[in-house]
Predict the structure.
Amino acid sequence: MKKEVHIFFTALMFFTRIPCPKWVDHDPIYLQKSSKYFSLVGIIVGSIGALFFYATHFLFSLEIALLISMVSTVYVTGAFHEDGFADVCDGFGGGWTKDKILLIMKDSRLGTYGTIGLLLLLAMKFTSLREFEILYMPLIIIAGHSSSRFIATTLIFTHPYVRDTDDSKAKPAAKSMSISMLLISGLIGLAPLLLFKNPLVYLTLLPMYVSKLFLAAKFKKWIGGQTGDCAGAVQQLSEVIFYLSLLALWKYIW
């Protein structure tokens, strides 16, 4: 149990800015096993976003409350996954060889493709969320964060890590994943969907996984696998796909 607690806090420390006990570090052994708690971290991050939305919607308009909620999740994660999405946009938009793509993705500077992609992604996330009723917004935010992180872990499971350098902090977490770890991530990540009390909500997983397959095919074709940035891009895209799919199904669910 103590070991699992250590692994969980390793995941929490790696994927967020939330303070963790001093005895937690970036131990590669624990970090490699931390991906199974990726979805649980999503529930925590989503809960923070839901809390900020719920608290601020009494004071401000729906739009302002949503923006505050989005800011809170970006802050608590340090824009970890948004940065990965932007890097993927830059790398695959401007690179034509594996080495060039990986080099661009490693560059800390934000390029044209990354800027446009990130702006459109956040705009789509905001405009899709604002279509839902306030009453259900907290649950939708939590489910979006948790389920999308599970989809991201499926990329780690199905595709090998391809960056050869050892200086990447994300390498241990993105390098490998066992079936048991994937199942744990799935059970945790999909748990919030049970609160919708309608099995039709699970239909959202189909387009989410299709979006993963689409990105995974590009990753496989151009770089031969995935990196931490690739997993971040899958998480961000599948989160938006979840909101859009849920919106399309909404009248049949509630």
Remarks:
- Residues 34-253 form one domain.
- The chain has a mean pLDDT of 93.
